[in-house]
UniProtKB/TrEMBL annotation:
Entry-linked PANTHER family: 5-HYDROXYISOURATE HYDROLASE, URICASE AND TRANSTHYRETIN-RELATED
Top-level taxon in the UniProt lineage: Bacteria
Swiss-Prot/TrEMBL keywords: Hydrolase, Purine metabolism
Reaction catalysis annotation: 5-hydroxyisourate + H2O = 5-hydroxy-2-oxo-4-ureido-2,5-dihydro-1H-imidazole-5-carboxylate + H(+)
Functional note: Catalyzes the hydrolysis of 5-hydroxyisourate (HIU) to 2-oxo-4-hydroxy-4-carboxy-5-ureidoimidazoline (OHCU).
Keyword Magnesium in record: no
GO MF entries: hydroxyisourate hydrolase activity
Biological source species: Paenibacillus favisporus
Family affiliation: Belongs to the transthyretin family. 5-hydroxyisourate hydrolase subfamily.
This protein's name: 5-hydroxyisourate hydrolase
Complex formation: Homotetramer.
Residue span(s) of domain Transthyretin/hydroxyisourate hydrolase: 2-110
């Protein structure tokens, strides 16, 4: 993750991975982590051989991150950034970077 407002890795950003579907509303929490000094998690959120097909959601806790950083005087337009995606076959790599600022973000499917 990259904090584009300060041009530094987004260190200390909480991320959750949920499996969506028939489980309780909000999905089933599969894993969570906090980014390190390089803006990356120390290990993948999915630590298995194959990711089962289905619909998933990554939630980035950017409001907490910006409050911790005191960016933009501690005010962030964004609070939670959810990214929903579908896994169709489990033998693919899923890397989803987030480029963030107090007022906006962009993401893409990385390699």
């Amino acid at each position: 993750m990259l904090d584009t407002s300060r041009a530094v890795p987004a260190s200390g950003l909480k991320i959750e991975l949920r499996l969506l579907g028939r489980e309780a509303e909000g999905g089933r929490l599969l894993a969570s982590g906090i980014t390190g000094a390089d803006g990356r998690l120390s290990q993948p959120l999915w630590d298995g051989d194959l990711v089962p097909g289905g619909e998933y959601e990554l939630t980035f806790w950017v409001g907490d991150y910006f409050r911790e950083q005191a960016a933009a005087d501690g005010i962030s337009f964004l609070d939670l950034v959810p990214i929903r995606f579908r896994v169709s076959n489990g033998d693919e790599n899923y890397h989803i970077p987030l480029l963030l600022a107090p007022g906006g973000y962009s993401t893409y499917r990385g390699s």
